[in-house]
Amino acid sequence: MSNIQHRKTFEHKKTQKIFTNPVINEILNYCDGILSGGSARKIFNNEDVIEYVSKDRGDIDFYFRNEADYTKALGVLKKHNLSTSDSPTGICVEATIQIKNGRPNVFGHQYAYCKLQLIKIYGSPFEIFKGFDFTNYKVAYTKDAVFYDNSIA
Questions:
Q1: What average pLDDT does the segment 29-55 reach?
Q2: Which of 2, 95, 96, 105 has the greatest count of CB atoms below 10 A from its CB?
Q3: pLDDT tens digits, one per residue of 7-31
Q4: Which residues contact 86 (CB under 8 A, 6 or more apart)?
Q5: Is the pLDDT of residue 1 over 60?
């Protein structure tokens, strides 16, 4: 996978409000979650990921290096009293979380709801990318780095 680049970064985390959400923050940092897929691509392109997950029906996908990290993430969902359900395929557990978007909607609420998925596929970002069918989704954030396919940079 010589097309994959890796760099330490915090620039996107400073510009995206999504990283301030306590559930996302805990899964990323405490559970060594790997945020990847469509929402990671939006973050990488510095697009509004909150709008993507709330209006465009996107979701936030977390992968994990191993089953122990996945199990810790399930504990985070339980700690925050989030109800979960298995996906129809059984490959992930889904929950709905609130994300502060900073812009009140017509009712004055500043929160958007989005689907969070804990994917039961384990490995490094490099290994996870092997299962992706679209190159433009090959972006992954860990607690201290971003990985991406060189062709999308």
A1: 86
A2: 95
A3: 555 555 545 677 788 999 999 999 9
A4: 92, 93, 94
A5: no
